[in-house]
Design brief:
The protein is 55% helix and 0% strand. With 227 residues, the chain is mainly alpha-helical. It has 2 domains: 4-113, Serine Threonine Protein Phosphatase 5, Tetratricopeptide repeat (Alpha Horseshoe); 153-222, no CATH class.
Length: 227
C-alpha cells in the first residue's frame, strides 16, 4: 500500500477502507492485511448506520470473512446498529444460514479460526526470517565481489553456505595453503614462475604440471644432446 495512513482516514460517511473491503466482499487476505494496519477499524461505527465491518459482512452474507472478524473483535457481535440490530439480527433478516450458524456458535467459530491464524503467523515468520537470511547473504556476496573487483581478494575461495563460519574457514584454508607453499598472493606465484623461467637454458623444453600452485619443470634433452 503506497500510503498506509489512508487506512485510518474515514470518508464523509465515517467509513474506513476496512468497511468498504468487507462490504464488497474482498478476499480474506486483503481484509486481514488492511485490518493489521489499523486494528481499531474493526471497532469503528460509520456515521449513518452505526455499522461496524461485522454488520456489513452479516447483512451481505460474506461468510468467508465472519470467522476472522469475530476472531479479531468478538465483542462486535453485541454491537447494535442505528436500527438496534446486531450482526446476527441482520443475518437472520436477510436469511444467510451459514452466517447465522457462525454467529450463533461464535466461540466455536473463533476457536476453529484461531488454529488457522497461528499457522499463518508461523509461516509468515519463517518467510520473514528466510528473506532476512537471503538479504544478508546477498549483502555479503556483494561485499566479496566488490573486493575482488578492487583486486583485494584474488584467490579468495567463495562458498555458498548458510553457516558463515564455513565461509570464513574456506578463506582461512586458502591462506594457510598459500603460506605453506611460500606464497602470500597470486603475484608471488607469478614472480616465482618468472624466476624459474629465467633459470632455464635456451633450447630446453619445459613441461609444467596443470597444478598452477606447484609448477614442475622437466628438462628434456634436445636431439643434439641425445646424439
Amino acid at each position: 500500500m503506497e500510503n498506509p495512513e489512508h487506512v485510518t482516514t474515514p470518508d464523509a460517511t465515517g467509513k474506513l477502507p476496512i468497511h468498504y473491503a468487507v462490504e464488497h466482499g474482498a478476499k480474506f487476505e486483503v481484509v486481514r492485511y488492511i485490518s493489521n494496519l489499523n486494528p481499531e477499524g474493526l471497532q469503528t461505527q460509520d456515521l449513518h448506520g452505526k455499522k461496524i465491518p461485522l454488520h456489513y459482512a452479516a447483512e451481505l452474507g460474506h461468510d468467508h470473512l465472519i470467522p476472522y472478524l469475530l476472531y479479531s473483535y468478538l465483542e462486535g457481535k453485541e454491537i447494535k446498529t442505528a436500527n438496534q440490530q446486531t450482526a446476527l439480527d441482520l443475518a437472520q433478516q436477510f436469511r444467510f444460514p451459514k452466517v447465522i450458524e457462525q454467529l450463533e456458535n461464535s466461540e466455536q467459530t473463533v476457536e476453529t479460526y484461531s488454529k488457522q491464524e497461528k499457522l499463518m503467523q508461523k509461516h509468515e515468520l519463517v518467510r520473514r526470517n528466510s528473506d532476512i537470511i537471503q538479504a544478508e547473504e546477498n549483502e555479503e556476496l556483494q561485499r566479496l565481489l566488490a573486493q575482488r573487483d578492487k583486486g583485494q581478494s584474488r584467490g579468495i575461495l567463495f562458498c555458498c553456505s548458510d553457516d558463515r563460519d564455513d565461509e570464513d574457514l574456506g578463506i582461512d584454508q586458502r591462506a594457510e595453503f598459500n603460506s605453506t607453499v611460500g606464497l602470500t598472493n597470486v603475484d608471488d606465484a607469478e614472480n616465482q614462475s618468472m624466476g624459474n623461467k629465467e633459470k632455464t637454458e635456451p633450447g630446453d623444453n619445459i613441461i609444467e604440471s596443470k597444478d598452477e600452485s606447484d609448477p614442475v619443470e622437466v628438462t628434456v634433452p634436445t636431439d643434439s644432446e641425445g646424439k
